[in-house]
Write a structure and sequence with these properties.
Blueprint (H helix, E strand, L loop, with lengths): L1 H6 L2 H44 L5 H69 L9 H20 L14 H16 L5 H14 L2 H63 L23 H15 L4 H14 L2 H79 L11 H16 L5 H14 L2 H32 L1
The protein binds a DNA duplex (20 and 20 nucleotides) through helix 8, helix 9 and helix 10.
Organism: Sorghum bicolor (Sorghum)
Keywords: Coiled coil, DNA-binding, Nucleus
Pfam families: HMG_box (PF00505)
DNA sequence: TCCTGACCGCCTTGGAATTC
DNA sequence: GAATTCCAAGGCGGTCAGGA
């Protein structure tokens, strides 16, 4: 009885409580009934006994005495019953309290479960974050170029700069090429070492005038080469600049997307809504569908009849699977023929599809190439702008420096450290002890954070520390200005 | 609370596609 | 090349979210 009441849910608990009260009331009533019956029995027997004990007394006196005794006994009985009832009521109250506590416990647990489920949904959603931001085009192009260069290096060995970039041949090599065949024709038996040695001696013996055309050719080749390399270097620099710009944009976009995603996930988690969209892989709609197997052809044919027999999908699957297993090769043959035909058709369609894909890829590559050219152009323009801006900044700095040097006066009072600088000095010392090896920019950032975290009173204290020096500086400056104006 | 729409599971075999 | 995974068909019923 008590177990059933405690184990129930809210409704169950209430039902249990009612049942418990009813049972206890019933028990109390039974006890009261029993007591009354016992009282009646007792009163009857005692009257009989008393009648036997007092034969000398008058009948009236005996009766009166018996009634008094009965009343006293009944009162005692009633008192006991009252106490029992109170006890029973107390038990009911205790049970009620236990039930109430259990109900509260269940409610708390349900709330906690709900909260955990919402958390779980949020975490699951966070796993699904798929940014749509693609790698900056410039970067991907640079990486492709890098790959191509690496492949080129692998194929052609170390030191080769690339397929189209050939280092200029020195004058001697140019001359050597001219002379090699000649020497070889003169000495067909001579091996590589011998020919080289002969030509080396000959080269040393050549006059400056004889070497001059080769030197000139080398100079021209070298110039052209340096021009190409310089242009490539410049383009690379420009592309890097553009890449940095694009990377910044991408990072920002990515952050925006992630924040938006997080917000949506939080909202969904809170409102118990989880999207299941896009769970399937993105399929190419133009891709031909896979052909049906022989079994599928059969299954499809059988379906109509089985559906008419009111069979559901899983049942149909089981039945057709079983039937297929028991069929002979001859029985399967027509379905296999259909499947073969479908497969052939599929293969034909796939051929067309694959060809289409190849063409698309080629077209994409062409497009990419054009885009690359545009990018290069844009990058160069960007580089020009940057150089212009850098030049302006450089000149401004130089001018300022020049002016400063011109105006520099050793007698001018030096501005004292501000409250922040005083704080910074101390904080720096402390932070360096706490985090040895920390870089300066991080350190400065930390100092700034610490400064901002200071309370009004703390900041006041630092201001007070800086104040005397600042007052002195102001005074000195006033005097200095006066002196300056009088000298002018 | 009801309605609607989207999505998924059910179940099978065998071949294609992909991964290791 | 072996192992694994995915996909093809059918339609009903269940679940869930969002809106009225």
């Amino acid at each position: 009885m008590a177990t059933a009441a405690a184990a129930g849910s809210k409704r169950g608990g209430a039902r249990g409580r009612k049942a418990l009260v009813a049972v206890l009331d019933n028990e109390a009533n039974i006890s009261a009934g029993k007591a009354a019956a016992q009282a009646a029995d007792l009163s009857a027997s005692s009257a009989q006994k008393k009648a036997k004990r007092a034969p000398a007394r008058t009948k009236a006196a005996v009766a009166a005495s018996a009634v008094v005794d009965d009343v006293a006994e009944l009162q005692g009985m009633l008192e006991r019953l009252r106490l029992e009832k109170e006890k029973a009521e107390e038990m009911v109250r205790e049970r009620d309290e236990v039930i109430r506590k259990k109900e509260e416990e269940i409610e708390t647990k349900e709330k906690e479960q709900g909260r955990l489920q919402a958390e779980l949904r949020k975490v699951q959603r966070a796993k699904e974050f798929k940014p749509t931001v693609s790698l900056p085009l410039v970067k991907s192009l640079l990486e492709k170029d890098q790959d191509a260069d690496d492949k080129g290096k692998k194929k052609k060995g170390k030191g080769k700069a690339g397929p189209e970039r050939k280092k200029p041949c020195p004058a001697y090599v140019l001359w050597l090429k001219d002379q090699w065949t000649e020497v070889k024709e003169e000495n067909p038996e001579a091996d590589f070492k011998e020919v080289s040695s002969t030509l080396g001696t000959k080269w040393k013996a050549l006059s400056a005038e004889e070497k001059q055309p080769y030197e000139e050719r080398y100079r021209q080749e070298k110039e052209a080469y340096l021009q190409v390399v310089g242009q490539e270097k410049r383009e690379a620099e420009a592309m890097k600049l553009l890449e940095e710009q694009q990377m910044q944009w991408t990072a920002k976009e990515l952050l925006d997307q992630y924040l938006k995603f997080r917000q949506e996930a939080e909202e969904e988690g809170d409102s118990k809504k989880g999207k299941r969209k896009n769970s399937k892989k993105d399929k190419d709609p133009s891709k031909p569908k896979q052909p049906m197997s022989a079994y599928f052809v059969y299954s499809q044919e059988r379906r109509a009849a089985l559906v008419a027999e009111k069979k559901n999908v899983p049942e149909i699957g089981k039945i057709t699977g079983e039937e297929w297993k028991n069929m002979t090769e001859a029985q399967k043959a027509p379905y296999e023929k259909v499947a073969r035909k479908q497969k052939e058709e599929y293969q034909k369609q796939m051929e067309v599809y694959k060809q289409k894909k190849i063409e698309e890829a080629a077209s994409l590559e062409k497009e990419e190439e054009e885009h690359k050219k545009i990018m290069k152009q844009e990058a160069l323009q960007l580089l020009k702008k940057k150089e212009k801006a850098d030049n302006i900044i450089k000149k401004t700095k130089e001018n300022r420096q020049k002016k400063k040097q011109e105006n520099a006066d050793p007698n001018r009072p030096k501005r004292p450290a501000s409250s922040f600088l005083l704080f910074s000095k101390e904080a720096r010392k402390q932070l360096l002890e706490e985090r040895p090896g920390i870089n300066n920019s991080s350190l400065n950032a930390l100092i700034s954070v610490k400064w901002k975290e200071l309370s009004g009173e703390e900041r006041q204290a630092w201001n007070a520390k800086a104040a005397p020096a600042m007052a002195a500086y102001k005074k000195e400056m006033e005097e200095y200005t006066k002196a300056q104006s009088s000298s002018d």
